[in-house]
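Model the whole thing, not chain by chain.
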Amino acid sequence: MSGPLTNRIRVLRAERGMSQSDLAAAIDVSRKTISTVEVGRFVPSTVIALKIARYFGVPVEDVFDLSDEA
Amino acid sequence: MSYFRPGTKAEVTDRLAELTGLAVGLGALIYGASVVQSFSAPAVAMTLDTIRMVCGILVLAVYLPLTIWFKTRFSGVILNPWKSDSFMGVALKRAGLSAFAASVMFMVLLSTLDRLVLSRMTAESVIDLVLAVALLVFAVSFLLYGRDGGEGEG
């Protein structure tokens, strides 16, 4: 079994001084999509996950983490 | 960027999803009013008729033009919220699944209650009732799934 999907989008954005709207516009999704992914309410599609990782120039594993349940 | 002037294709697609949910809710009102109308007194029936007419006008005069405008806003592309994998696009698809499941369950329930319900209703009312339930479940599910649980701009 796997635990919840966590992500570092907020940190990566903060490092680059970007808003949710900036990131949303850069990868062609809505701001609501970014905000709900950030808080873990919405699990993004593979395409969106890869777009985010590609935009930040990091492997997708550096953005998302599927933690194992204890 | 205002609600009716979203800046990007993704934002416009989200608006289309929201408009679809709203129009389906109005559709549920139209069919629901039609069912109640068949059992109500003439004075109430007239009020319900007005409600149906207003909802119908809203769908035809507001939803349809806005949808066409949003869909064709970007030249060369016709936006479709059903094909979007955004948060709202997924909410729309989940609401569709919920509505399908609810209508099947409701029809099964109706078929088991044939003496209690079906024998007392006309075929037209039964169809209106099933449509009202399906559309209502869709609209309510979409409202619940599409609630923004994210944080504001940060």
